[in-house]
Automatic annotation (TrEMBL):
Alphabetical keyword list: Pyridoxal phosphate, Transferase
Molecular function terms, GO-annotated: cysteine synthase activity; O-acetylhomoserine aminocarboxypropyltransferase activity; pyridoxal phosphate binding
Highest taxon of the lineage: Bacteria
Cofactor: pyridoxal 5'-phosphate
Recorded family membership: Belongs to the trans-sulfuration enzymes family.
Positions where N6-(pyridoxal phosphate)lysine occurs in the chain: K204
Protein name (record): O-acetylhomoserine aminocarboxypropyltransferase
Keyword Transferase set for record: yes
Alphabetical list of CDD domains matching this protein: CGS_like
GO BP annotation list: cysteine biosynthetic process from serine; L-homocysteine biosynthetic process; transsulfuration
Organism whose genome encodes this protein: Vagococcus acidifermentans
Amino acid sequence: MNFETKCLHAGYTPKNGESRVVPISQTTTFRYDSTEEIGKLFDLEAAGYFYTRLANPTTDAVEQKIAALEGGVGALCTSSGQSAIFFALLNIVESGDHIISSSAIYGGAFNLLGHTFKKLGVDVTFVDQTLPLSELTKEVRPNTRAIFAETIANPALLVLDIDKFAALAKEADVPLIIDNTFATPYFCRPIEHGADIVVHSTTKYLDGHAVQTGGVIVDSGKFNWQNGKFPQLSEPDVTYHGLVYTDVFGEAAYITKARVQLMRDIGATPSPQNSFLLNLGIETLAVRMDRHYENALAVAHYLEKQPLVKKIMFPGLPSDPNYALAQKYLPNGLSGVISFEVGDDRETAGKWLDALKLVSLEVHVADIRTCALHPATSTHRQLSEKELVEAGISPGLIRLSCGIESVDDIIADLEQAFRTLEG
Ligand SMILES: *Cc1c(COP(=O)(O)O)cnc(C)c1O
C-alpha cells in the first residue's frame, strides 16, 4: 500500500459484516471463559486484551496504522506527547545514565529533560545541533544511553541533519530518538534515515483538528539492545517471572516493554474515544499536509515582502538557512508553521495580533484552522527582555500555524492587520 492508502486502510481490516469504520471499544475490560486464559495473558504467554490501561482494540488499530506509516515494527499510544517522550526515554534510561539532546526542542520537552529527568538522576547535555559530528561526539560518555532531537524544531524551525545524528548515535552505540511531530510521516520518515525510535505529539498534525491530546512512540525494531548497555531489555524482568524482553519479543522488545512495564506501572493511557478521533484525523493526513504546506509557502512569500516583517523563518524559502536540509530530508513539504518578527517590540507584534480576525490567537499549532501565538506575552511571558533574547525569542516573534482555509482569505486577514499598524 502507498502512504495515502495506509492512512485509510492500515491497522484495521473488517471481516464479513463487521463495522466499516474502526469501532470505539469504550470499555475498561474484556470477558474471558477461564482463569487459565487470563493467567496466560498476565504472563505475556498469549496476546489479547484484558484491561484498557495496557491495550484496547480502538487504540490498537491506530497504533498499527501509525507504525505502518512510520515504517516501524510496533507503536504505543500515550495520553499526550509529553508522556510519549517521557516513556520513550524512561524505557531505557535510569538514575546514573546520560542523554544527549539537541537544545532546539519543544519547551515542554526541554523542561522534562533538563529538570524532571535531572531530578530522577539522569544527566542531560543539550547540544547545538548545527555543530559538526566531530564536536558532537565529544559529548558522548560511557553512560550515554540515548540521543534526542526533533525533525523540525518547534518553534525555531531548524531542520535536523538526521544522518549526522544517526552517525552520532552509532558512534555512542545508543538509539536515536526523533520527535517527528511537525514533519509527520507524510513528509519525513526518520526511520528511513537511521532513527531507531520516533515519537509524536498526536495532538498536532496527526489529529489535525484540535480535538484530542495524545502521543505515540514508534519502534523501528532495528536497534541491537544486546550490546551490554540496556540490561532493562536484555536481562530478566522480575515482575514477569524473569522474562527477558529481547529473547521473547525479538525486534519488538523495546515497544513491548514500554507497554507491559511502563504503561502497566505509570498508566498514561489514551481513552478509546480519543483513539477513535485520532484515527479519523490520520485518515486525511496526506491531503491536509499538502494543503498546510502549500498555504504556508504562499503566506511565507507574502510575509517576505512586508516592510514590517523583520525576519522570517520558514525552511521552504530558498533564503532560509535551513533550505538545503529541508530539500534533503523533506523534499515534498514542511509543516504549516512559520515564525517571523513583526516590528521589534512586544507592542507592535501584540497590536498586529489583536487586529487579526479570521486567524485566532491560540496556544496551539497544527490545527486545520489558522492560528497564531506571541511567545513573548504568552508561553515565555515571565522572561525578561534579556532572557527572551537568550532563548532566541525576540519581542516581536510570532508563530503562525497556517490552516487549510482559502489562502486568499488568510492573506487578506494578515494584510488588514498590517494596515491597522500603518495607522
Ligand atoms: C506539542 C508538542 C509536544 C508535546 O505534546 P503534548 O501533546 O502537548 O503533550 C512535544 N513535541 C513537540 C514537537 C510538540 O509540538
